[in-house]
């Protein structure tokens, strides 16, 4: 917040978070604690993808990717 950024909160629909000028709340359906990490992964990946696209980052050629992971 000190640098003027917007905070995105992924929260259960039953939570008491509300969006305002500096915070956006993305409500996700309630799930079992066991599968919650899987359910939350998809919205986080989509957020990361769209932020990268907006910033103009090449999402298919990430910088500093370890050579053991890249395929030529």
TrEMBL record:
<dbReference type="InterPro" id="IPR046348">
    <property type="entry name" value="SIS_dom_sf"/>
</dbReference>
<dbReference type="GO" id="GO:0005829">
    <property type="term" value="C:cytosol"/>
</dbReference>
<dbReference type="GO" id="GO:0006487">
    <property type="term" value="P:protein N-linked glycosylation"/>
</dbReference>
<protein>
    <recommendedName>
        <fullName>Glutamine--fructose-6-phosphate aminotransferase [isomerizing]</fullName>
        <ecNumber>2.6.1.16</ecNumber>
    </recommendedName>
</protein>
<keyword id="KW-0315">Glutamine amidotransferase</keyword>
<dbReference type="GO" id="GO:0006047">
    <property type="term" value="P:UDP-N-acetylglucosamine metabolic process"/>
</dbReference>
<dbReference type="GO" id="GO:0006002">
    <property type="term" value="P:fructose 6-phosphate metabolic process"/>
</dbReference>
<dbReference type="GO" id="GO:0097367">
    <property type="term" value="F:carbohydrate derivative binding"/>
</dbReference>
<dbReference type="GO" id="GO:0004360">
    <property type="term" value="F:glutamine-fructose-6-phosphate transaminase (isomerizing) activity"/>
</dbReference>
């Amino acid at each position: 917040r000190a640098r003027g950024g917007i905070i995105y909160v992924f929260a259960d629909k039953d939570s008491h978070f509300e969006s305002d000028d500096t915070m956006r709340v993305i409500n996700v359906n309630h799930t079992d604690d066991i599968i919650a990490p899987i359910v939350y992964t998809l919205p986080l990946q989509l957020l990361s993808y769209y932020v990268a696209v907006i910033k103009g980052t090449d999402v298919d050629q990430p910088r500093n990717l370890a050579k053991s992971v890249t395929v030529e």
